[in-house]
Design a protein that fits this description.
Elements: E1 2-3, E2 6-19, E3 23-34, H1 49-56, E4 65-74, E5 77-78, H2 84-90, H3 92-95, H4 110-117, H5 132-138, H6 140-144
Antiparallel strand pairs: 1-2, 2-3, 2-4, 4-5
């Protein structure tokens, strides 16, 4: 699918998310991420940023959440029946989120944590060696601390 002639990597169409079968967390949310673009999801606490990302990653059931309506498509494929690990292997983690709260292996270095994170890339077509230089370019502070313990 295209939007003004641009390939969309991610399409979120009019989603509604409900927690515990009664609490409506999102209603009518839509967004599109064009190929090659960076999109930021901003908002105050409780605005639904994390819920949106959990819906995209199919992590809602872990918190008794449900995508009650709407659709999510990644690279033109409906994601509704895909497990979170299948989405990661297809690349969703690169377009969705990194969890907050220092969820790292504390006894490993920053660089060892980056290496560990690449194990999810196995089985993905066309994935070569991860480009840590690009990661360090985006986050120069990580390069400075790459040999130090992450915790």
């Amino acid at each position: 699918m295209t939007q003004n002639g641009t390939d969309l990597v991610l399409e979120v169409n009019n989603i509604e998310v409900v927690y515990n079968k009664v609490v409506q967390a999102l209603r009518g949310l839509s967004l599109a991420v064009p190929r090659g673009e960076i999109v930021a999801l901003l908002g105050s606490n409780g605005a639904g940023k994390s819920t949106t990302l959990k819906a995209i990653s199919n992590l809602l059931p872990l918190e008794d959440g449900l995508l009650a309506s709407g659709s999510i498509r990644f690279c033109e494929q409906d994601t509704a029946r895909l497990a979170p690990q299948q989405l990661v292997r297809r690349g969703v983690s690169h377009v969705s989120h990194v969890m907050e709260g220092r969820h790292v292996f504390e006894d490993l270095t920053v660089e060892e944590n980056l290496v560990a994170s690449t194990y999810a890339l196995s089985g993905r077509e066309g994935v070569g060696k991860p480009d840590f230089d690009l990661v360090y370019q985006y986050f120069p502070r990580l390069f400075e601390r790459r040999k130090g313990l992450a915790g």
